[in-house]
Amino acid sequence: MSETAIPYMVKPHPVTGIPNGKLGIWLFLASEVMLFGALFSSYVLIRTGMPHWPPEGGLSSEVLNVPLGTFNTAVLITSSITMVLAWASCKMGSLPKFRSWMGATVFLALVFLVVKYFEYSDKFHHEHFPSHDNFYAVYFVLTGLHGLHIVGGIIVNTYLLTAGSKMWQTDPEHFTNRVENAGLYWHFVDLVWIFLFPSLYLL
Amino acid sequence: MAETTEHEDVSKHMGKYYVVFVALLCLTAVTVGVSYLHLKRPLAITVALIIASVKAGLVAAVFMHLISERKVIYAVLILTALFFIVLLALPNLTTFEHHSGMPGT
């Protein structure tokens, strides 16, 4: 098996100075910046081309639910610090603490999705589907893609919390690096929301 | 032992993580508060984007440890930033071409 294993997952690669997994996740995040960047750029283009935004009149803050959006922002920020604490617990050698903080991270991610579900179903209830107008098209595409990233994070973090944590017994350093990489991704998802929330809900 | 110093290293940073957490929550409150002032659009966009950039900077620098990262990651991010700026400028570039009356083909 050893010859098929990816090298330098624990020790830093002599050329880059970092483990391969970490370089890999940063390259992935760079591609994610371009993905969200393209959609954000489209949003700016669509919005500046409209005489009024939202097209039906009023303000974005009147069309979308600002208290729920604010609450969800706080939820994601909190999940970011619980993620950092999960990684720090690994660094300090405590698997039980890791389990608590990672459990909290997954729980908060689920809270975010539940809130989003209520926001979406309220819009659908009023027959405001993505096809309604440009405002809802942009809103659903951007928050929908972000929501899919939350789902992805939940899957990875749940794996690390359950079956994946077996690695702690055999190779704790490698496991800690995996948690760090999952954390980098998770903070990025938080970071995207930090821009989405004001630009969709408040402006 | 190397491991012991690493433990101390992480525990030294814990305070910083909590400070950033509180700062992020406060900045969220500020950005929502400012939106109720109904500032003129250009000013409102500037203020909201400045606050969001500060928050993003805090997350990237402290939670993602960019403040003490290796050169190779900075190189990747500088390249990404360049392409990102081009991407955001694309709508403007199309407008420029339109006004200058350059032949499309």
If you had to describe this structure to a student in words, what would you say it looks like?
The complex is a heterodimer of chains A (203) and B (105). Chain A has 203 residues and is mainly alpha-helical. Chain A is built from seven helices and no strands. Chain A has helices spanning 20-48, 60-63, 66-91, 95-125, 134-161, 167-170, 172-202. Chain A is elongated, with a radius of gyration of 20 Å. Chain B is mainly alpha-helical and 105 residues long. In chain B, helix 1 packs antiparallel against helix 2. The N and C termini of chain B lie far apart (68 Å). The mean pLDDT of chain B is 84. The chains are: A mainly alpha (203), B mainly alpha (105). At the A-B interface, helix 1, helix 3 and helix 7 of A face helix 1, helix 2 and helix 3 of B.
* CATH architecture assignment name of chain A: Up-down Bundle
Roughly how many Å apart are the termini of chain A?
Answer: 54 Å
Strand runs of chain B, count: 0
Query: What is the residue-averaged pLDDT of chain A?
Result: 94
* Number of helices, where a helix is a run of at least 4 consecutive DSSP H or I residues of chain A: 7
Order of secondary-structure elements of chain B? HHH
**Total count of domains of chain A:** 1
Low-confidence stretches of chain B: none
What is the SS-derived class of chain A? mainly alpha
Q: Evaluate the radius of gyration of chain B.
A: 21 Å
What radius of gyration of chain A results from the CA coordinates?
20 Å
DSSP strand content of chain B: under 5%
Percent of residues in helices of chain B: over 70%
CATH topology of chain A: Four Helix Bundle (Hemerythrin (Met), subunit A)
Taking pLDDT < 50 over at least 5 consecutive residues as the criterion, the unreliable ranges of chain A are none
- Please indicate the count of domains of chain B: 2
CATH class annotation of chain A: Mainly Alpha
